[in-house]
Amino acid sequence: MARAGTTTARRYAEAAFEIAQRDQNTDLWLTQLDRLSAALTDEDSVRRLEDPEIPFETRHAAFKALFTDRAMVAQVYNLLGLVLRRRRLESISDIAREFRRLYNKREGIYEAVAISAAQLDDKEVAALRARLEQMTGGRVDLSLQIDPKLLGGIQVRLGDLLIDGSVRGRLERLRGRLATGAVTP
């Protein structure tokens, strides 16, 4: 079951995405939501911005001041005001993530996470991306992570699909085959 915060973020993101599509500025929304999300990583700032002792207009103006270097889309400010008024600033990163998911779906971009035991070089990343794009028939937004607990190899999560090419995964599959008698000497 989805968490309440995720459901709320999904609703906000869907509404924002509809507005962005209507206004034909989804790329700009995507950039600005990512900036908002990055700006709200400091818990002290979020706590101050959500402080009910401070009038809403003052809090909203303070947040707007953080982005004076570039003008933001008016509707993004409206979304921010709504989220700020309801004291749900912590959901901005979830809203940005959901907005990106909707954007990627529309653009035919698949999100993939590759987890390896060691850093992959540029050739390996390019080959992996090419293979995933061949599998999906679309563009792949590939994120890389390192997990020293892997013995070797790589695990790739592509949506709901887990491709386990790790040494541990291969050994576990071999053990299962041996236990069931599927491997003959």
Please summarize the sheet with the most strands: 4 strands, mixed
**Gyration radius over CA:** 22 Å
Q: What class, by secondary structure content?
A: alpha+beta
Q: Note the total helix count.
A: 8
Q: Based on CA inertia axes, which overall geometry fits?
A: elongated
Helical fraction: 55-70%
In sequence order, what are the helices and strands, one letter per element? HHHHHHEHEEEH
Number of domains: 2
The whole-number mean of residue pLDDT values reads 85
Report on the architecture of this protein.
The mean pLDDT is 85. Helix 1 (4-23) packs antiparallel against helix 2 (26-39) and helix 2 packs antiparallel against helix 6 (92-107). This protein has 185 residues and is of the alpha+beta class. It has 2 domains: 4-104, N-terminal domain of the delta subunit of the F1F0-ATP synthase (Peroxidase, domain 1), CATH 1.10.520.20; 109-180, Glutaredoxin (3-Layer(aba) Sandwich). Strand 1, helix 7 and strand 2 (139-146) form a beta-alpha-beta unit. The protein has a 4-stranded mixed sheet. 58% of the residues lie in helices and 14% in strands. The chain has helices spanning 4-23, 26-39, 43-49, 56-65, 74-85, 92-107, 122-136, 167-180; strands at 109-116, 139-146, 154-158, 161-164.
